[in-house]
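The following block was generated as part of the benchmark described in Methods. Ligand: fe (ii) ion.
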Amino acid sequence: MLNMDRLIVEFDKGLRTLFSQAHSVRPHPDAKLPEATMDEAGKKHAAALMRVNHSGEICAQALYQGQALTARDPAVQQSLQRAAQEETEHLAWTARRVHELGGHLSVLNPLWYTGSLAIGAVAGLLGDKWNLGFLAETERQVGQHLQSHLDRLPPQDEKSRAIVAQMYADEVGHAAMASSLGGAELPQPVQLAMKLNGKVMTGTSYWV
Ligand SMILES: [Fe+2]
Ligand SMILES: [Fe+2]
């Protein structure tokens, strides 16, 4: 049941996600890789792609938070928390990389956060079967998106590529977890709507 204390805790989490630095328990995947030599255009493009990925991770934080608010089964809640911890690491990795590339984080992050929190909470209210189904589909779509970034990132930018590759491996794991916990396959129109929604976010965050 939601009460005022819980809401304040969640509000605080939201502010921290948006305005403070995330930390990673695992070493950053690019920690041992050298910085690439890139021209300004290449650097700008890589920073923009990593900004998109950072916004995606802001959405992941909000989705997991929304779902944890409403998920019923304690085992499900625990698995969600474990995955959410990895999402926090993704947030830390992408934020640092955007800054290293001389870029800025998306000014629209508060908007993505709020929208995703609402979607996550609604998914959670539909019950664990749909909640987990929604999560599995989200993670699958994020995985496809990350794969496309491996094609689009400058080939010499090994640091960004190592981060995206590890995120991809983690997201595949999250999708498998959500399915194995009993996530249902979502109807095609819902999958399509989610794809369109993702395209709006990624398309906008590339620029702002
Ligand atoms: Fe992630
Ligand atoms: Fe994930």
